[in-house]
Design brief:
Strand content of chain A: 35-45%
Oligomer: homopentamer
Low-confidence stretches of chain A: none
Order of helices and strands of chain A: EEEEHEE
Largest sheet of chain A: 5 strands, antiparallel
Structural class of chain A: mainly beta
Number of domains of chain A: 1
CATH architecture of chain A: Beta Barrel
Number of helices of chain A: 1
CATH superfamily of chain A: EutN/Ccml
Distance between the termini of chain A: 18 Å
Mean pLDDT of chain A: 94
């Protein structure tokens, strides 16, 4: 998974019908310049540190037929013991 | 998913028969130099900002047997609250 | 998918028995320095511009049990409207 | 798989209910600057050299329905014959 | 797939029980600085040029339940027509 920080939200009206209802957030991966869009089932806000799972495991999280979603926020980070 | 901008379209006559009918667009991932080719079910045009899902979830979106497609435009972006 | 140019062919005698019969080509991804080896079902030649699908969707293209192949040339590019 | 070194641990209280009980460690991939978060079923400690499997194979390791976990520590490294 | 050169071997005693018996080799991807650990069913040696398949197709190669292995040496390279 990736440790990332929420930087904003994306809106899309013209989309495939299989896109699940809910928020698509933009995140930046910590200590890198990579930006991703991830589905957020947790109601995270800008600046929040999150854990992002990517690939088919993100789609597999949804009940029923897997939607075309390849990144999912699976948690918000409380605290980190990582050495800087 | 990746936030990207459509830069063009690709045509292929010599191809595997399992390639689905429709457009393959070239996109550049925003704030990077990465270029991808993605299947477009939405009729997007050059310069349009789009959301691209990659990997097996792209193939899984198609009805019936999954085609060898690893990138799919799942939405066009209306507006972004991302801080620049 | 990736837009790439064929640069050569690989031969392997010592290999797993599940490797499908056919050509493994070396390609370089356009506008990058990434090199990949991809299975070629189309008979592409050196210098040819191709579309490469990667990951499990490449293996899923083969009939029967999926072989350990993670990159597949799915088409040869006719023409591109991409802005340079 | 990736050869990595454990650098810390992540705690998350606000999370999806499908996140399995256990430790999420932060690792840095050796001879790179890439950082990942990986599920640790082995009780690894800071500074330990580990083998990390990524992608859907990590989720597939768990018994029952695959959780949204895309990185798994599958072993701790005893010794390496790698030339430096 | 990736064209890589074997640089060493990894030993792991503390590991998940699902790790298959056999060698885990360290390889460096040719014309890059990326290092990977890959399962070797072919008995390759240091300095040998190999073809590495990555992702879930590596796990799918094993008989029975797929182990948490995301990189597999599928062949040793005889000869290459690649232009340098």
């Amino acid at each position: 998974m990736l440790k990332a920080t929420v930087t904003g939200r994306i809106w899309s009206t013209k989309k495939v019908s299989e896109m699940p209802a809910g928020s698509i957030l933009e995140v930046i991966v910590d200590e890198s310049n990579s930006r991703l869009l991830a589905f957020d089932p947790l109601g995270c806000g800008e600046g929040e540190k999150v854990i992002v799972a990517t690939g088919s495991v993100a789609a597999g999280w949804f009940p029923g037929k897997a939607p075309p979603i390849d990144a999912l926020i699976i948690g918000s980070i409380d605290e980190s013991a990582t050495k800087k």
